[in-house]
Every structure is written in structure tokens, then in C-alpha cells.
What we know:
The chain is of the alpha+beta class. It has three domains: 3-68, Orthogonal Bundle (Arc Repressor Mutant, subunit A); 104-247, Endonuclease, Chain A (2-Layer Sandwich); 255-315, Winged helix-like DNA-binding domain superfamily/Winged helix DNA-binding domain (Arc Repressor Mutant, subunit A, Orthogonal Bundle). The chain is 52% helix and 15% strand. It has 13 helices and ten strands. The N and C termini lie far apart (75 Å). The model has no long low-confidence stretch (mean pLDDT 79). InterPro entries: Sig_transdc_resp-reg_C-effctor, TrmB-like, Tscrpt_reg_LuxR_C, Tscrpt_reg_TrmB_N, WH-like_DNA-bd_sf, WH_DNA-bd_sf.
Amino acid sequence: MLEAVGVSEFEERVYRALLSLADSSAADLADTLREPARKIGPALAHLEELGLVRRVNGRRHAPVSPEAAIGMLINQRRAELDEAHGAAAEFVDAFRLRNLRHHPAHPVEVVSGPDEVRRVSRTMQHNPATSVLSFDKPPYATPPAGYDEVAAERPLLERGVEMRVIYDGAALELPGRLANVTELIRLGEKARTLPTLPLKLYVYDRRLAIVPLSGRHVSEAIAVIHPSALLDALIALFEAYWVQATPIVAVRAHAADGLDPQEATVLAMLGAGLTDQAIARQLGVSLRTARRRITAVMDLVHASTRFQAGMAAAHRGWI
């Protein structure tokens, strides 16, 4: 009965005998159980190690309360099983990634459940060898404010992974997001933007793609797509949108040209297509103040439209 917690059948007999006897020696138990004393000693030692038995007066033994002792063993075994379950999940991820890369059996694998989705997504994100193509579109499983995307992407960019990202207009309107994107551009990311995107998409090494299956709850389920006509179509969709998208550039402020860092930020936001309201939120100012600063920047580059402001900045070498 206690084999599940590491107690052998014979050791259980010894423990049961102790429960019905006064403090006993190995010799007493050998007489009671009609077993050789040489078998009793090791059994008592293991029961003592497990916490089921305690020594009394040196050579005698007494049972520990079963409620406490067996409960402790059960909890230890549960902890070991939980640890094994966690290790199994890592092995499953490795096995899944291997099969998806080398032995795909089906065009699409559906992964469901927040924990599984996070594990698979994290595995994919950390393993691209050559390239990542992405449609970046809210909502997010982890809000950008709680996720350091610069720290996450930096190692990939530093080892030469090509990262091309098209940002949905709503993604760039999130507070502080454009600053992060600008820093990623400085690190080597190629970024563009469109007012709206049809879906969230991640393509790794042009061999695997992830598409969330729920628009509102992105961590509920994803489709993992491996080499197939469907993957080719998704890559073609990305390339078609890339051609139409507007490049996002990191504006360089040059004191000699009269462009201070805040004006550079406004110019970058104009180039990214942010609305006046979104620029106000990014700057943390009122809409009236934001419009005043927008007008000042456009006057500085002698532009009457946002497009002209971007062209003038490019001509002057600010972007």
C-alpha cells in the first residue's frame, strides 16, 4: 500500500508491527514477525530515513505518527512529480520543434492553452537562425509595458538575424512603444507601418509560422504552420504588405540644424503616421500642446504635409 511513497512491502510489515507494539528492538520485531534479524535492521534504517520511525534509547524504535509522516512523504512525492511534469513539458517542446523543423506530418499544428502557447511561442522566438518576419498588431498576450522587447530582440539582432516588422498603427500609439521601436531600428530592425493589418503573424527562417487563432485572447490557441503552400501564402502576404507599408526611421537630432531631441521625436512620429491624439499621448501632453509642437516641427522643415516633413527630414540627413 505504501510502495507509492517508497516503502517496500516488507518495510510496511515492520512499520505495522511497530504500530501495535511498545518501543521495540530489531530482535523484538524479528520474533514478532518471525523473520531473520538481518532483514529487520535494514528495514528499520530505511523507515527511519523516510521519517516513519524514530530511535528510542539508542537501540529501540518507535513509530512516528502516520498522519504526519505519511503525509510528508506524499507531499514530497507530489513535488517530485510536479518537477518531472515540468521537465516533460520542456521535452515535449523540444520534440515538437524537432518534428516541425525536420519531419512535419501535417501542414498545421494547433496548440491550445495559455501555458502551452507561451512555451511554444517562447521556444520559437529564441531559436530563429536567419530571419523573422512579423505583423505586430494588438492585443498582446503580454502588454508591451510589461515586456522588454528591446532586451528580447537585441541578442537576435546582434547575431545577425534579419528582423522585418510591420506595425499596425494601433501598436505605435501605445505609450512608449515608438521609443522602443526606434531603439530597435537603431539596433538593426527594419520596421514599417500600416494603418491596419489583417492578423498577427510571426514567420521564423521562412520555415515556420505562428498565427494566433483568437483575435481577443491571443494566448488561448495558435496555429503553427510548417513548410507548405499555406506557409508560402503567408510569406507572400507579408511581402505584399511590406511593399505598401511606410518605413519607420530613427530620426537623428543635429544641434547644428536646430533640431532638438523632442522635435526629432515628433518628426519620427509624424513619419510613422501617428495621429495628433496619439502623438499627444506619446509626449504626455495635451492635444493642443501636441499640435503646437507638430506645427513648429513642420515649419522648421518648411513642410505643409506630414509626407513633406518626412521627405524634408530625409533630404537633410536627419533620417
